[in-house]
Amino acid sequence: AGLDGVILGFNVADGTEVFKYQASAGINAQAAVSGDTIYFPAGGPLLPSAAAADPQPEMAPGVLALSLGGEVQTPAGATPED
Predict the structure, then answer these.
(1) Per residue in 2-24, pLDDT tens?
(2) What is the rounded distance in angstroms from the CA atom of residue 69 to the CA atom of residue 14?
(3) Integer CA distances (angstroms), 28 to 17, 40, 57, 64, in order
(4) How far apart are CA 20 and CA 63, in angstroms?
(5) The pTM of the whole model exceeds 0.70
(6) Cβ distance 40 to 27 under 8 Å?
(7) DSSP bridge pairs for 44
(8) How far apart are CA 67 and CA 60, in angstroms?
(9) Residues 59, 46: contact at Cβ < 8 Å?
(10) 42 - beta bridge partners?
């Protein structure tokens, strides 16, 4: 995860990309883990990158919670890609 707002997940066994999520703000601090959930603080500026959505979503800071095996719930301004 980075200031482009893109959160990537990878398979630890072979390194393949498992998911990609475009947040509505840049990820500006370390993620936190609790059980099967990872929390991402999204409050930084959205900086363009090759991996970011085009056009980028309107900035909307918040905390994102991604759960193993969870369903995708899209808040206003965010775009799940896989």
Answers:
(1) 999 999 988 899 999 988 999 99
(2) 19
(3) 22, 8, 17, 12
(4) 17
(5) yes
(6) yes
(7) 26
(8) 21
(9) yes
(10) 27, 62
